[in-house]
From TrEMBL:
Recorded coiled-coil stretches: none
Chain positions covered by the region annotation Disordered: 364-386
InterPro entries (UniProt xref): Gfo/Idh/MocA-like_OxRdtase_N, Gfo/Idh/MocA_oxidrdct_glycsds, GFO_IDH_MocA-like_dom, NAD(P)-bd_dom_sf
Biased composition (Low complexity): 370-381
Keywords: NAD, Oxidoreductase
Stated name of the protein: Gfo/Idh/MocA family oxidoreductase
Organism per entry: Brachybacterium kimchii
Gfo/Idh/MocA-like oxidoreductase N-terminal domain sequence ranges: 16-142
Length: 418
């Protein structure tokens, strides 16, 4: 018997996509749009890769040859003026985010922007307010919250299964910057990156803590340091952390290698957050632990597809149970037919893309009012979430400088509180 396709599958709505910055993240955004219909057919959307904007000719060539963009340009304004571009991905170095996000919002184009949203809280606020004023849907690249195991931790907390949450521990340790001969790229320059590891990695931790507990970080006491103070100055442009040439001249690192913060959440829950980009041996060791009066649960990105949980009193078998992700945990069922089959980092971006486009299709969502996708997972992290993380970053930097507790301004419209 022939099976009829649904209306959404038969006549998906075409959606023109523009991607700014065709490095690591821009390419991942592009492939997420390309693969959307295979994972989320009921959205009835057919993203069309209309235009890529990147100054590097090799990235423009890759955009067309590897990803199938119809056009590739070096001028962002030309891309934004293209009426065929309905939504925009912003995946440039941090200092260019605002200069793309503001005109995109003014042109009424929803945008998916990488984290950290701006180089500081002031820029992030401008971006959030522009999106809110324009009423456009937005998404921010806090991809780790989409891991099915993380979604389940949030569900455990929301259902009260762990009892009253007492404290949370989160760390993000990596060694991408641990070589003193790694190039002094934009990431180490305060004017182009903003904060160092606080914005680059710890902002993911801020989002994880707030998303899983549903509570905002309200005050922080922090210390920061720069362990590798000089790096060789690049002599060529390139993509990613290290793919550039360097000369013999060295320059000063302008932002943090390491941060440790004590934090209080709005309901009194305690939190500790720590992050390093120079922790030799830790490749991408990102972890979250949630403790409550009835139990605790923990997740690590190094074993992304599982979590450990302990609830109640296990008698002589008291201890953690390891649970492999399966259908019923976040969007796992979209990607694998049976339990325990690993998903990938790229899949987290595919989920983010679907959440973003769900908000775009809902047309009432966006900054501060995102519609819940039918998939059962959370709404896309939006610019309110991006601003909230930026406020925490800034409070941490101020606390470290003043050696005192600093209050964090709260932001309305975040998705983690919903
Ligand atoms: N969500 C995550 O887990 C995650 C991971 C890595 C990076 N990021 C964020 O993504 C953003 C990009 O990082 P990346 O690792 O992809 O960097 P990258 O260096 O790989 O890519 C940046 C790209 O931007 C392009 N670019 C530079 N100037 C431009 C301009 N004026 N117009 C258009 N394009 C321009 C560069 O040519 C390059 O291709 C950063 O904000 C970073 O913090 C997020």
């Amino acid at each position: 018997m022939a099976v009829e396709a649904t209306n959404a599958e038969n006549s998906p709505r075409s959606l023109g996509v523009g991607v700014v910055g065709l490095g690591w993240m821009g390419r991942l955004h592009a492939s997420s749009y390309r693969n959307l219909a295979a994972r989320y057919p009921e959205l009835g959307l057919a993203p069309r890769l209309v235009c890529a904007a990147d100054p590097l000719p090799e990235n423009q060539r890759a955009a067309r040859a590897q990803f199938g963009f119809e056009r590739a340009v070096d001028d962002v304004e030309e891309m934004l003026a293209d009426p065929e571009v309905d939504v925009v991905s912003i995946a440039t170095p941090n200092f260019l985010h605002r200069d793309v996000a503001l005109p995109a919002a003014r042109a009424g184009k929803p945008f998916w922007i990488e984290k950290p949203m701006g180089v500081d809280a002031a820029q992030s606020r401008e971006i959030h307010e522009a999106a809110r004023a324009a009423g456009v849907a937005t998404a921010v690249g806090f991809n780790y919250r989409h891991a099915p195991a993380v979604e389940h931790l949030r569900a455990l907390v929301a259902a009260g299964r762990l009892g009253r949450i007492t404290n949370v521990r989160c760390w993000l340790y990596a060694d991408y910057a641990s070589s003193p001969d790694g190039p002094l790229t934009w990431r180490y320059d305060r004017s182009r990156a903003g904060a160092g590891v606080i914005g680059d990695l710890l902002s993911h931790g801020t989002d994880l803590v707030q998303y899983v507990t549903g509570q905002g970080i309200s005050e922080v006491s922090a210390a920061t340091d720069v362990f590798l103070r000089e790096r060789p100055i690049p002599t060529s442009a390139g993509v990613g952390h290290g793919a550039v040439e360097v000369g013999t001249e060295r320059g000063e690192v302008g932002n943090e290698d390491w941060v440790a913060a004590l934090a209080n959440l709005a309901d009194g829950t305690r939190a500790t957050l720590e992050s390093s980009r120079v922790a030799r041996g830790h490749r991408s060791d990102y972890a979250l632990e949630v403790y409550g009066t009835e139990g605790s649960a923990r997740w690590s990105f190094t074993r992304m597809n599982e979590f450990e949980v302990m609830i109640g009193d296990g008698g002589l078998e008291h201890g953690y149970t390891t649970v492999l992700a399966g259908a019923g945990h976040g969007d796992y069922g979209r990607f694998q037919p049976g339990p325990g089959i690993p998903m990938s980092f790229d899949d987290l971006k595919a989920i983010e893309c679907a959440e973003f486009l769900t908000d775009v299709a809902g047309e009432g969502g966006g900054a501060g009012g995102a519609a819940r996708p039918a998939s059962g997972s959370g709404a896309a992290p939006n610019t309110a979430d991006g601003l909230s993380a930026a406020e925490v970053t800034e409070a941490i930097a101020r606390s470290a400088a003043s050696r005192s507790w600093v209050e964090v301004p709260q932001v309305e419209g975040t998705t983690w509180g919903a």
